[in-house]
Amino acid sequence: MADAASIFIIPPPYHHHLSHTSNSSFCTSIRTPILPTQTPRRRNHSHHHQTLVVRCCITTTTTANQKKNPISWGCDTDSLENASALQKWLSEAGLPPQKMSLQRVEVGERGLVALKNIRKGENLLFVPPSLVISANSEWSSPKAGEVLKRNGVPDWPLLATYLISEASFMKSSRWSSYISALPRQPYSLLYWTRSELDKYLVASQIRERAIERVNDVAGTYNDLRLRIFSKYPHLFPEEVFNMETFKWSFGILFSRLVRLPSMDGRVALVPWADMLNHSCEVETFLDYDKSSKGIVFTTDRPYQPGEQVFISYGKKSNGELLLSYGFVPKEGTNPSDSVELSLSLNKSDKCYKEKSEALRKHGLSVSQRFPLQITGWPLELMAYAYLAVSPPDMRNSFEEMAAAASTKTTSKKDMRYMEIEEQALQFILDSCETSISNYTKFLQGSESMDLDVTSPKQINRKLFLKQLAVDLCTSERRILFRAQYILRRRLRDMRTGELKALTILNGFRKFFK
Ligand SMILES: C[S@@+](CC[C@H](N)C(=O)[O-])C[C@H]1O[C@@H](n2cnc3c(N)ncnc32)[C@H](O)[C@@H]1O
User: Fold this and answer.
1) Is the C-beta atom of 316 inside 6 A of ligand 1?
2) Is 259 within any annotated ligand binding site?
């Protein structure tokens, strides 16, 4: 699935990063998009005379009118509602016969399950380009598409707007069966409230990433509204194009958009292929196959009939999977797992100003997050630690250290400053230990945590979010424990080594005396 780093009109803040189980009884519909009036927007290519017959808003309550004739975007993913309509439409629209079918599954609620024996190395899917939603797709409201393109709107916000526009056309959009089978409320941290993020992710740096993302989505929507929607209200009425509908469409993009390497990294929604769930045990990914002219993936393991077929959403940490897809893999199963460690310059440092200036020059700030993996940490983190602990007489090296701490600096040598190596390692260890104690406090407190619910309906949701947070924090703390162990051992070896050297030196001194 696509990486979300480059979606925004407003550039996202710099991220310094490399790269469960589902609960089917969980009620997802706490803030459900509902269309109160059920008449679709009419196709009308002359925008001057376009009559908007739909009034769309997102509510948390259901009116009598909606109860009578409920129409909403998407469906509940814990049911197979709309799945057969999707499969029927896909095969009529040109999807060749498949070796998999859409079923209820244990991992991921709905997923694709093998109908026949599938060999390792087989190509599956073959979704033709005509069934792919990309920035070039035709709009049911061509004028709306023209306006966005004329204004140079990038792919992600363009696709988010496209999805809302097509959803509002309901049955008269060619994507109606696809949109009806999309989740009504995508699982992603976009749907956690600020107080849920603060409460459940208090120990994890993912909380900040989620807040940044929520703000980026809001900023992107506001930017579109100011620059474009407010100038063409007949094409982009606020009842349809609003913050809630954008949250939904971005939630869909974060969890389903695919980057296709063979199409110059173009991003696309690929109906059917986006029903495949992620496994950390496979490495295969979706791509365009020039010879068969379709979106395919090549299996990297065999499957028997009845087994769920998986792809990889990329080498992502558990936190990143929670952020975009709303799930956390079982502890210890994700080889790409990492935790972000936050390092900060000490405000009382005599060279605080010079150091922060050097960092700023290289796009870094006085407080910076770095990924730790079970196998180690990046050179950038070590460089930042050297800078943080270096004394004033090393000011000539500040610039070099800051450059090495930036991921933007490509040529990197494994620089070492032996004279401050011990302090740098101790500095990282201290940060690890602060972080570990925050995780431990959260995990211990989570057992007796007040769920803060006002209605019984909310209990399932809160329990589900809490479990996701506990799973994430357990896996992140595990990596920190490993780093703590390695750092302590290194420091101990250094100190005993120094002690030995000192004893020998003293021996020499005595000898000369
Ligand atoms: C591309 S969609 C896959 C199809 C999805 N299961 C559905 O029913 O629409 C991605 C979503 O599937 C679910 N998912 C994918 N892999 C999962 C996994 N290993 N464990 C739990 N949920 C998973 C998450 O809800 C994620 O947001």
Assistant:
1) no
2) no
Is any atom of ligand 1 closer than 6 Å to the C-beta of 107?
yes
Per-residue model confidence as pLDDT tens digits over 149-207 = 999 999 999 999 999 999 999 999 999 999 999 999 998 899 999 999 999 999 999 99
For residue range 382-396, list pLDDT tens digits in order: 999 999 999 999 999
Alpha carbon 474 to chain centroid distance? Answer: 19
What is each CA distance from 329 to 166, 169, 308, 475, 501, in whole angstroms?
33, 37, 16, 9, 47
pLDDT band at 477 (very low <50, low <70, confident <90, very high): very high
From ligand 1's centre to the CA of 274, what distance in Å? 9
Which ranges in 5-45 belong to alpha helices (H)?
none
Task: Tell me whether residue 352 is annotated as binding.
Answer: no
Q: Is the CB of 327 under 6 A from ligand 1?
A: yes
Whether 220 shows a pLDDT value over 50: the answer reads yes
* Residues 406, 364 contacting (CB under 8 angstroms): yes
The structure's pTM equals: 0.85
Q: Determine if residue 274 is labeled as part of a ligand binding site.
A: yes
Residue 231 CA to ligand 1 center (angstroms) comes to 37
Would you mind telling me the total number of residues written for the chain in this entry? 513
pLDDT at residue 29 tops 50: no
- Which domains are seen in the chain, by residue range? 4-325 (3.90.1410.10), 338-505 (3.90.1420)
CA distances (Å), 63 to each of 33, 34, 60, in order? 13, 10, 10
Distance from C-alpha of 468 to C-alpha of 461, rounded to nearest angstrom: 11
Whether 22 is in the pocket of ligand 1, judged by its Cβ within 6 Å, is yes
Q: Which residue has the higher pLDDT, 333 or 44?
A: 333
Mean pLDDT of the residues in the chain:
86
- The response to whether residue 110 sits with its C-beta less than 6 Å from ligand 1 reads yes
| Ligand 1 and 184: CB distance under 6 A | no
